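Our consortium's second objective concerns turning raw sequence data into structural hypotheses that experimental partners can test. To show how far this objective has progressed, the report includes one record in full. It was chosen at random from the queue rather than selected for favorable results. The single chain below, 327 residues long, was entered without modification.
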Amino acid sequence: MAEATEGYWIGFDLGGTKMLAAAFDDDWTIIGRRRRKTKGREGSDSGIERIGSTIERLMSENDLSPDNLLGIGIGCPGPVDLNNGAILTTPNLGWDDVKVGDFLKQTFGCPAVVLNDVDAGLYGEYCFGAAKQSRCSVGLFPGTGVGGACVYEGAILQGDGISCMEIGHTRISSSTRASGIKMTGTLEAEASRLSIAAEAAKAVYRGDAPILAEIAGTDLSDIRSGAISEAVARGDKSIKRLVVEAAETIGFGVVNVIHMLCPDTIVLGGGLVEAMEDLICKTVEDHAKNHVMSVYRDRFKVVAAKLGDDAGVQGAAAWARKKIEPV
């Protein structure tokens, strides 16, 4: 790509398995992109250096001058210390108290804004995708866990110096299923892609899911969103039932959110939703509308995220610009 002669912004999405960096000009046109594996289990010191080298490669490969870098926004998994720009804890990476904001500022000599990754993804959808022009939007992203976020009147809903909206850790049933915290029966324990995969593995073992047995067997690491979707499409009724039950549970989560915030837009995202968009979105919306108070029934819609992997980087960069250059 041609060298950028004007200022540009970088958005970074730190995931459990991959990291993605992208550069944007002032009109939000992508002028460069760089993706790598996270390799988070090698430790936070190695991981943070990998973040830095990924950004350096992005700039080098696209002839982007460090002098023109206006700021960096980075979305990180888990709760984030907003005042100190630090990752507090990341169960999927095993990192604790990582001051990624200071590292980026010192390395690249520009402002850096750290936020939760689901917050970044929903803010991207609010600015550029499925939640544009929403007064209040809430995102639910079922994956290894169930991430949540809220954008209210153009701003990410955050706590006092800490990220919030951990909707996956709200109790939704009396089940004894656990999800990594002391409380059982959470939305994450009942409706994450991981919980679906665990129940699907049991179905394969019992002989109730012959198609999934052919595709992936009983190994949880192989029962990914694509395998689940293919099994449903090819007629594994027991697997479809698991997906529908999980979507109905998410529908109850939506009901709880509606009763508290009355968002006009519910955005569902993540690989599982992308793989079975029509089935999951319709089931969630129908179940929510059937159980919400009647006065709220026609005041919200459930939509699938539109931006895919770019939501996190676009949202992180846009939020950084909003915080660094407030109107």
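The partners drew two points from this record. Residues 237-261 form the longest helix (25 residues). The CA atoms of residues 52 and 107 lie 7 Å apart. Both points have been shared with the crystallography group to help prioritize constructs.
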